[in-house]
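TASK: fixed-backbone design
INPUT:
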């Protein structure tokens, strides 16, 4: 390949990366001394499911994320994945589907909770091999709900209970927190006015065993490079 062809290819890659950042909040990190190629995937705003949200709402669309994760798994040139989280939650089924897919990746994965990772964002945060939260980052653990209205049909309560059990089971299987403790945090009546749940800030999420460590981008990238190096050495 000639120098002009190489420069053209590099320019096309940069243009593609810029488009990914603009449209999906995604970029590939590869200008590091370890020569590791890391895919940076962000989950921000509200996780959009089967219904389209308002155009004024910042969303992460699961129909975009799932194919991207499949592409990452199949790509021989991607060494690891960094998952950035700043989400209020959103569609439960779609969020859990993304979490399950992240957890099934064979490549090293690290998550970093920035502003917050609430509701269905909690399973997403723990779906990676290792997780970080910034000191001021927050996580809200609360029961499953669709709206604020009162529903009297017993089958609806049973459906909610099954969904909640699935979420608790997933979280407990991907972090150090026990199911009993997670359920207690979800059903806490003393913290959120007129609502159930618990707000965990930074170190509190680590003490509860949900998040692995307090840290920022530097610590998260360092850990991911370390994990990729260990995997390569095997």
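OUTPUT:
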């Amino acid at each position: 390949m000639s120098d002009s062809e190489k420069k053209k290819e590099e320019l096309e890659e940069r243009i593609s990366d810029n488009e990914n950042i603009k449209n999906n909040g995604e970029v590939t990190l590869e200008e590091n001394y370890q020569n590791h190629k890391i895919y940076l995937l962000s989950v921000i705003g509200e996780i959009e499911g089967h219904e389209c949200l308002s155009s004024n709402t910042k969303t992460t669309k699961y129909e975009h994320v799932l194919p991207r994760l499949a592409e990452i798994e199949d790509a021989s040139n991607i060494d690891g994945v960094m998952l950035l989280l700043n989400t209020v939650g959103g569609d439960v089924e779609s969020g859990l589907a993304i979490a399950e897919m992240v957890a099934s990746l064979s490549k090293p994965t690290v998550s970093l909770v920035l502003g917050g990772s609430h509701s269905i964002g909690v399973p997403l945060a723990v779906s990676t091999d290792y997780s970080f939260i910034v000191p001021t980052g927050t996580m809200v653990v609360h029961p499953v709900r669709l709206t604020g209205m009162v529903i009297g049909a017993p089958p609806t309560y049973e459906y909610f209970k099954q969904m909640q059990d699935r979420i608790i089971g997933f979280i407990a299987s991907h972090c150090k927190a026990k199911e009993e403790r997670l359920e207690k945090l979800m059903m806490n009546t003393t913290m959120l006015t007129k609502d159930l749940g618990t707000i965990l800030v930074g170190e509190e999420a680590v003490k509860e065993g949900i998040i692995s460590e307090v840290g920022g981008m530097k610590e998260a990238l360092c850990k991911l490079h370390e994990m990729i190096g260990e995997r390569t050495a095997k």
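COMMENT: The two ends are 33 Å apart (CA to CA).
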